[in-house]
Design a protein that fits this description.
single chain; alpha+beta; Signal recognition particle alu RNA binding heterodimer, srp9/1; 2,3-Dihydroxybiphenyl 1,2-Dioxygenase, domain 1; 8-stranded mixed β-sheet; 4-stranded mixed β-sheet; 15 strands; 36% strand
């Protein structure tokens, strides 16, 4: 977000009445929304969200999809208007007033998680869905591929490539989609996936496995081999940053790091 995190969070509370803000400060607002955690980060204008990662909402009824669509519509850019499509009786894809992308589907999902991150692999990565799903489910345990839909043989896609896949990493659902058309956007740090780790060993393992073939960045951020941005952080970090007495010292310790070290952050908080 470009200084609009709190405003966006308040908007989503109106769209989804069952959502709740779990913590907030000048930099970050965190909220829970139908089984998913969201972090809205005031990161400035350099990186912005785009449809490369969207939020796929399984609405479960015609009344609910119509309500959410109407609530998101003011100031939104509609990519696919609400209506019937070959794969479902009612669907829409739109980017809201804050630049966040949403896919709405009338279908239900048998999970407490009703909002699922959806990764769009567009040309020149349109054939990478199967490889990406295999990569992620190999790294995170337990994991499971739940659904795979291949490209039509006449589409021009590589043999064996996937149009759509749904998979679970630990307890979280993800969708992955393919577009053979070149889009005017690719994966960006404006959309990132956050992994909260309980131990330093977990941080070390995920940092190495996800960053290999990609790019290691500062402050726990990395870009994987497919261009997807991740934040690998200690689960205790939000608590440390929410304490106004600890925040500055913790940030001073965090800023020079690439991979985050839990012991260093805890020592900084103890010295506050």
């Amino acid at each position: 977000m470009n200084s609009e995190a709190r405003m966006a969070a308040e908007f989503y509370l109106q769209v989804f009445p069952d959502a709740q803000i779990t913590s907030a400060n000048a930099m970050v607002v965190q909220l829970e929304l139908r089984g998913s955690k969201f972090m809205l980060l005031n990161g400035g204008p350099l990186f912005q969200a785009n449809p490369s990662i969207s939020n796929f909402v399984y609405c479960g009824s015609t009344e609910e999809i119509d309500r959410i669509y109407s609530a998101l519509l003011p100031g939104a850019k509609v990519m696919m208007p609400l209506g019937a499509y070959p794969w479902t009786s009612r669907y829409a894809w739109m980017t809201d007033r804050f630049g966040v992308s949403w896919q709405l589907d009338v279908d239900p999902v048998r999970s407490s998680q009703k909002v699922v991150p959806a990764l769009l692999f567009s040309a020149p990565q349109a054939n990478a869905v199967a490889r990406a799903v295999h990569h992620y489910t190999t790294i995170f345990k337990p994991s499971m591929v739940l659904m795979e839909a291949p490209h039509n043989p006449q589409s021009g896609a590589e043999e064996g490539s996937l149009l759509f896949a749904q998979f679970r990493l630990r307890t979280s659902l993800f969708n992955a989609m393919s577009s053979l058309e070149k889009q005017d956007f690719q994966f960006t740090p404006g959309n990132s996936l956050v992994v909260e780790c309980e131990t330093q060993l977990e941080i070390d393992q995920l940092w190495k496995a996800l960053g290999e073939g990609g790019q290691y960045q500062m402050c726990g951020w990395l870009v994987d081999q497919f261009g997807v941005s991740w934040q690998i952080i200690p689960s205790v970090l939000p608590q440390l940053l929410n304490d106004e007495h600890q925040r500055l010292r913790v940030m001073d310790a965090l800023m020079p790091m690439q991979k985050l070290e839990i012991s260093t952050l805890l020592q900084a908080s103890a010295n506050a």
